[in-house]
Amino acid sequence: MKNTTTFLSIIVCILVAYPFSAPAAEKTQLKEEISVLMEPSKGWWIFQESVTPSPDSLHVACVAKKENKFAVIYDGKVLKEYDLIGKDTPIFSPDSNRLVYKAKKGNKWVVVLDSKEGKQYDNISTPVFSPDSKRLIYVAQEADKQVVILDGKELGRYDLVPAKHNPIFSPDSKRLAFMAVDGKKPVMVIDGVEHKGYEDASFPVFSPDSKHVVYPAKNKGKWFIVYNGEESGRYDKIGVYTFSPDSAHFAFSVLKDEDAVIIYDGKEGPAFNDIAMPVFSPDSKNMAYMAIKDDKSYMVINGKKGDPYDEVLISNFSPDSSRYFFNARIGKKWYAIENGKKSTAYDMVLFPIYSTDSKHLVYQAMKDKKWFMVYDGKEGEKSDAILTPLFSEDLKHFMYMAKKGEKWTVVVDGQESKIYDGVALPTFSPDSGHHAYIAQENHAWFVVIDGVESKERFIGFLKGSSLKFDTNTSLHILGMYLPAGETKPNIVKYTIEIAD
Asked: Are 73 and 64 within 8 A, CB to CB?
């Protein structure tokens, strides 16, 4: 591991983010508390790129070096020393309760899961947790073979087990599939059983309900989809493939005699020059995709080709599946197209978002080099840039972040906040009664709740950490905090309580 750095340099570059709405600022009283998770350890140097917050932003781990030894520091505790720690670790489980990393002992590597070492190997891939955090998979190199290890047990030895998107757990964490090369042929291993080998094959995908598994395969120069062991028709090439949300439908694109075609539940759609990934509606009853033919772009919905456009980009169904949006270009102008109806002309249209009740649609538009939100067809105030909007849980409030020159503001229900050097990580409380975000002013970062700025100031907030409401009146985030009189910052959990 290279490029060691001091603890001080773990200052996070915060990306600009979004805005919010709330009660009157003068009514909000804040009670702030700082809990130290990690202090600069004497003699240990921290690797900036290794600092990792847990998904719930309650824990932090990193890799440190002392003389010729390396160790993981977890919530301030220096764990066992090794000759090296894998640069792609440590990794928290999805539930934030487990920690895994790779460590080198002499010329061998081990996986350390919950402080327990596994078997030593010549090399080890990046470990992957199952969605429920209970299982762990990785691939190890031993001599000239690659070994798949699931929950500490070896599943099989192969000449090659590609690492990208492979192996994979099913969404319910109960099943496992991976592609491996044995000899010159790839084989698919599903639930521990090796299936028929092919000339070539790609990576498997599980259906959302975990009951089905598919993968592309090739024999005698032709490609096909293997669906639960059954082979589809033969084609020149397999493109994108996806399941419907209810797992009852499956669609994939193919190249057939130089034509691009969507195969939907086994039936071929119209022929085009090119086709993008199909998108299903949330209720799985509708399927749409963008297609190109003879320099014109089309949106194809339920197999029916729509009007021709010069370009088609983003598509999105409403949560109740009754509304459908895409943006399209005619000449130099862009339009928002919803359920076949075209908006006024803009220089650009981006990022459509429906409210959870499907009653409201918002998207970003640009005209005369200025950006603005279009909310249910009404144009908002113009800005130099805007970012993704947010609805509160009760859908009564709406916010986004807007750039004004070199400064940023948070716009809540149409009202701009104070101007800051930067803002980020906006969030609403679960009951929609409060909003919060982080802001920067005079090179210091702090939290703003309902328009009230916190007193504590930070060097930065940890990259990957979130501003999270734990209750309707309390929230936390991980930050870099420099105590008075100190020269090196601590990594801390910062909690704010909103007084009644």
From this structure: yes
